[in-house]
Amino acid sequence: MVVLGAGAIGCVVIDSLAAAGVGKLTVVDDDEYSEDNVFRHLLPPLYIEVRKPAALKLALEQRYPGLSITPVCTTAQDWLKTADLSRYDGVVLAFGAPSVERSFSRLFKSMKLDLPVVFTWLEALDLGGHSVLIWANGEGCLDCIYRDDEGQPSQVPRTSFLEPNQAVTRNLTGCAGAFVPFGPIQSRRTGLLAAEHILSAMT
Length: 203
What we know:
Shape: globular
């Protein structure tokens, strides 16, 4: 099993799969664990400034005997250039970049592999999250939900909880910036849903 993205959702997926008995996991992420992640990530502050895949290997292999995590500290795009997807029972994409995920979906469909793929992401303002399961050699794809009412391509998924052009940032009083909040409750709920989807596909 491979999980692409080890952030707020990805860490929950990885932990849940390990707890469910998945013994071998490949974790791909090029990001370091930072102070900004602490309140919505499963890793303790001890791992700040450590690459997320390496930190998850250290933390979870101690927690789950028999677990083997292969940390890949690079981007999913770079990993995919040399990856042999036939070695995996499933793929979870949890990095929340729709345009990149849609390109991955098209690539997986072109490979015609008998491979379950889960795409999972959060919506802004802590409105909720999504988990979409497809089979690389089956009908349907991630692009299917990026259509308007007339079936034409759209930049917004039909599953979105937000209205078109709805503002999704909040200004910080007294600061010169804005932020898009993602809370821990929706991250964990969505991560559990994604783990359930990929486990159900595998069994």
